[in-house]
Write a structure and sequence with these properties.
2 domains, globular, alpha/beta, Peroxisomal Thiolase, Chain A, domain 1, eleven-stranded mixed beta sheet, 354 residues
Length: 354
């Protein structure tokens, strides 16, 4: 049974929500942190509701609305999301008030909206969707877990369409805390310099991406989700190579059939070694595109990579800013997306043209 991606939506540090297409140019940035480019949310959300929503809720709702509009679906049969950090802004507000007010006279709003499933719940309330609603909080496998759950449910034949997505935000509090772990660049860096960097650390990012998945091919179908797998703490680069070989064989796809290899190169020298190994072995000679210099690094960044892969197959062109090396063929048939987070969480996604 084939699983089709009927619609996509994305809010990211690039102007991806403007027209829901690949941006023609990269929004310039410099420094270790990328902030999402936020559209006019009033086109999707009532003004009275916007006032009570945190940034990540607005980002998630906008991405969901974009994907549903593109798919021509008013209400999905289920909503499945993934997030590693949840609503950090509301969590910070609640904890700050607890300290400043000495745990007295606290309003419940920030606490209620700080839970990880708030975004999926808000989308369901706005759409009147009373079906299956689940949020996965599996660190850097949160998006892949939501995607896997959606694939299994669709293959059971119980539901026809599922809204699947992932979202994570970056706040001043979370950026300062994560910076203590020495995972970000110390000096200024631009998107052109990041991918050529040979130093430690990367840049922080945030975003939300949603997809409408179904078993029927519609007039606006963007691509086919052919395969997905994850690998936790592989023993070495040889194990990654073996896993990719097994993944390709399981989905009847040879190396020669892959038109484009998209990976999560992020400028961290030690982490990028994994991508270089695959580029020079299994995917040797294949054109390579990257995406984390456009969205930054965060646990569910693979969702942005999948969104970009879907748009590339749908539009049959690769943005100049996304190309890392090689020449893109005239016809794009299959795209392999390889992402790893902190060298522990590795995932593979295979997309095919419809």
């Amino acid at each position: 049974m084939y699983i089709y991606i009927q619609g996509t939506g994305c809010v990211s540090p690039q102007e991806t929500a403007a027209g829901n297409a690949l941006p023609a140019a990269v929004l310039p940035w410099e420094g270790p942190r990328l902030k999402a480019w936020e559209p006019d949310y009033k086109q999707w959300i009532d003004v009275k509701l916007i006032r009570r929503m945190s940034r990540v809720i607005k980002m998630g709702v906008a991405a969901a609305k974009l994907s549903l509009q593109e798919a021509g679906v008013e209400k999905p049969d289920a909503i499945i999301t993934g997030t590693a950090y949840g609503c950090l802004d509301d969590t910070g507000v609640f904890l700050s008030k607890m300290i400043n007010q000495q745990e007295e006279m606290l309003t419940p709003t920030a606490f209620i909206q700080s839970t990880h499933n708030t975004v999926a719940g808000q989308i369901a309330l706005m759409l009147g969707c009373h079906g299956y609603n689940n949020t996965f909080v599996h660190k850097a496998f949160s998006f892949e877990s939501a995607l896997l759950d959606s694939m299994m449910i669709l293959r059971e034949g119980r539901l026809r369409s599922i809204l699947t997505g992932a979202m994570d935000e970056l706040t001043n509090h979370s950026f300062n805390i994560l910076s203590r772990f020495d995972i970000y660049k110390k000096g200024p860096v631009t998107h052109e310099q990041l991918l050529k960097s040979d130093t430690h650390g990367t840049v922080a990012g945030e975003g939300a991406a949603c997809f409408v998945l179904g078993t029927e091919r519609g007039p606006n179908t963007k691509a086919r989700l052919s395969g997905l797998t994850t690998l936790y703490k592989p023993g070495g680069k040889a194990e990654i190579s073996a896993d990719i070989d097994a993944f390709m064989a399981a989905h009847n796809c040879s190396q020669s059939e892959v038109s484009l290899f998209i990976n999560g190169r992020n400028g961290d020298a030690s982490g990028d070694e994994w991508y270089e190994h695959v580029e020079n072995t299994i995917m040797a000679g294949k054109p390579v595109a990257t995406f984390k210099h456009l969205c930054g690094e965060y646990p569910t960044a693979a969702s942005f990579g999948m969104w970009m892969g879907c748009r590339i197959l749908a539009e049959q062109q690769v943005p100049v800013a996304a190309m890392f090396k090689g020449e893109v063929p005239e016809k794009l048939e299959k795209i392999l997306i390889y992402n790893q987070y902190k060298q522990t969480h590795h995932s593979l996604i295979l997309l095919s043209v419809c």
